[in-house]
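Why does residue order matter? Because the sequence determines the fold. Keep that principle in mind as you read this record.
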Amino acid sequence: MALAGWRAAPVTGPAAGSNRAPLLILAGGLVLGLVVGLLVFIGPPALPGFAGGPAAGPTATPAPAPVVGAPAPNFTLTDLDGRAVTLSDLRGQVVLLNFWATWCGPCRLEMPLLQAAHEAYHEQGLTILAVDLDDPLADVQAFRAELGLTFPLLLDPGTTVTDLYRVRGWPTSYVINRDGLVSRQHLGALDADQLNEYLAAFSLGG
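Structure:
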């Protein structure tokens, strides 16, 4: 037959190392396995700038969410006249903490009700603090003048306190009792009946 004297030609292409390929794959797998095993056993290397590395600082722990019955997160903000207002300094007062913005329609509708409550019950121990959502100072000043507001409007640059209180909609109000605990949380504009109900728990309102 024609194949009787057939002799294989020498392999000169990629197949020349085909016998060594399984060995290389096996060796690579062993090395990879050793590396993974070491990382599992001793942990990843400490790299500067990453958690666990020499330059890593303490991990920030988010403040607890303000929930009814829990202490209201403390803060200090500045009002439109440059005075610092610290929540913890108001212990003994009932605090209505209102989060609002100049562009918020329901906030605008709610403000006259808050002003009326301030005028009626401030001397009885009610303090209203209205935290603005990082609007320009001139806009907040114009808003106060337009509506004739006399309770403190606080500036929250960078929305630090707004984020601290987990505000996701405007307006949002918190009622804080005389011991500094959250008594009520209200999402949306307050109406007169709701506000009277909240204040009546502290012998304020009718």
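The two ends are 117 Å apart (CA to CA).
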